[in-house]
Amino acid sequence: MLDIEMPKDTPLELALSTLKTAWERQDAIIVWKGFTSGTAMDKYKSEEYCRKVFKNDNYEFLVNGSNFAYESTSIKNAIDNMEDRYLG
Predict the structure, then answer these.
(1) What is the 3-state secondary structure (H, E, C) of 4-21?
(2) Per-residue model confidence as pLDDT tens digits over 24-78
(3) Phi and psi dihedrals of 61, rounded to 5?
(4) 20-27: which pairs have CB atoms within 8 A and are 24 or more residues apart?
(5) pTM above 0.90, yes or no
């Protein structure tokens, strides 16, 4: 699996081409730095904001670096354990 990081100033055509290729190959994680800067999405990068806004219902989260393994847990538990379970 490829890890691809695109800076905020990546030209749109190149960014879209990169995303499309990765999606078709199903073998990459893309991090587009600053993608939401200056938009309504900015507020969701705050863990505290998410804790306040999202219901503490159970959601399914991919775990162990897999696209197949997942667990169902509350949003607050997922945030508390993100580093260990989901990014590890």
Answers:
(1) EEECCCCCHHHHHHHHHH
(2) 887 777 777 787 788 888 888 888 998 899 988 998 888 877 778 888 999 899 8
(3) -125, 135
(4) 26/67, 27/1, 27/2
(5) no
